[in-house]
Fold:
Amino acid sequence: MGAQDTQVRDLVIVGSGPAGLTAALYAARANLKPLLVGGYQFGGQLMLTTDVENYPGFPQGIQGPEMMELFKQQAARFGTDIVEKDVEKVDFSQRPFQLWVDGQHITAKCVIVATGASAKWLNIESEKRLQGKGVSACATCDGFFFRGKEVAVVGGGDTAMEEATFLTRFATKVTVIHRREEFKASRIMLDRARANPRIGFLPNTEVTEVLGKDKVEGLRLVRHAQGNPQSQMHMGHKVEQWDMPAEGLFLAIGHQPNTRFLEGQLDLNAVGYIKVHNFTRTSVEGVFAAGDVQDPRYRQAVTAAGAGCMAALDAEKWLEEQAH
Ligand SMILES: Cc1cc2nc3c(=O)[nH]c(=O)nc-3n(C[C@H](O)[C@H](O)[C@H](O)COP(=O)(O)OP(=O)(O)OC[C@H]3O[C@@H](n4cnc5c(N)ncnc54)[C@H](O)[C@@H]3O)c2cc1C
Structure:
């Protein structure tokens, strides 16, 4: 894409995770000459991980970044134009659609949004450094690596209970750490976790540091007196600090879909996921969505890639209908 991308593109795909790159592969092979605007953080969430062992076709597993490089090569091989920048703004109120990328303006008959979601992290330096080395935001993806080990889950909602329960298939002990006294999880999920002898609970507790140089070896924790940790600290209440051994830390404090640039343009749910109907259609005809940006449930590379394929086939059919 040059400064003068004056042509009306048939299809622009936004996002470069498994969903966007699979959509690009299918669209390019259908001769739609798609433009993929993949974001500054090209490759999506798998760039943050090491071993991916559950993507079919790689019996020995593959490193996340290596897999995304292969996805990119395959999409490019069939003629996808790739730009590694963010879409800043869109106007879907009329057709053709308008998108703005780094101050430049793109026009498209059809758009697939595949901008994924970002896991929420604690935002402490040691957590970032040990991502993929014992710190994870996906128990389904990484639980298997913690057979016979002690791990911790941070969070207090249904996801945290689900992940903790799932992790007991592998880990000898799972400690749920939650910064409040009360858990937000539904009664049934909480009861199930509480009944599991391998799960322990640390309410009113926060992780302040992940210990270990090249892998997780423990957690530094602080326990507040019961109540809101922030206000207790400010009121000068005493806090207790200690180190707990752990070889894994799983964050289960939610995900943020990357849809801020779509606000007011597409129907989003209360937390910002794109609402889809009829498989991959959004509230705007001619705009399709695929992957984690519309899927708070499965959140897997293979489901995102599958959804990318679906969106490309839906977009292709829709463009064909418009031509007649
Ligand atoms: C640590 C970790 C480990 C994981 N391990 C596994 C695993 O082993 N197996 C598995 O199946 N799944 C795993 N997952 C989940 C998997 O990564 C996701 O389900 C999958 O990547 C979702 O794909 P996606 O294409 O929908 O979105 P993403 O991978 O989130 O990609 C979205 C892309 O869109 C781009 N983007 C965002 N906003 C814009 C914008 N405005 N303009 C342009 N581009 C934009 C982003 O930069 C990103 O590149 C893991 C996730 C994490 C966080």
